[in-house]
Amino acid sequence: GAVVSQHPSWVICKSGTSVKIECRSLDFQATTMFWYRQFPKQSLMLMATSNEGSKATYEQGVEKDKFLINHASLTLSTLTVTSAHPEDSSFYICSCPGQGITDTQYFGPGTRLTVL
Amino acid sequence: GENVEQHPSTLSVQEGDSAVIKCTYSDSASNYFPWYKQELGKRPQLIIDIRSNVGEKKDQRIAVTLNKTAKHFSLHITETQPEDSAVYFCAVTNQAGTALIFGKGTTLSVSS
User: How far is B36 from chain A (nearest CA, A)?
Assistant: First the structure.
């Protein structure tokens, strides 16, 4: 199956700083990538859809100026959490539709963000 | 938008018993229904999926049934083992290449 990586796997930062998370499709091209957020003991909630060559589409209630998404190439999308606060501490996971049978999603390993 | 409800939220069974988790959805256009298993701190792992043109799919101890008329689908795990203990999520999508909408999850505990 397709391989999706994320970097970093975990990060601890101070309140007010910005954190960048990378999502890469390693063996296929992804014109679309999805970013999810998962709080402890909760489900995955879609934050935004990242589109190569155009602006990201954000879900209702997600601040686009706080969660900056850049789909820099066909294999890389980045999520930057700006001015992070403790309530942004969460597990951030990206996914990419597979090539061919595109309803199958391939998930990255996730990034654990802790804001102190 | 799509609404996915999942029940039960927790399920405890004895090793060897069967476990059933059910999800209902609201959008009749939904056509892809995967089930994921997630262990603590890890990514969701696809365990089985079904598309709207079939009513049932089985893979060893795991099966999924789909009732499009009633808009619900269920995960069936037979002969449960302690290693089946995890959080299970159902999800739906109505268009290839679009994001999945997840249920709230079921914590399955299998005791030996």
Answer: 11
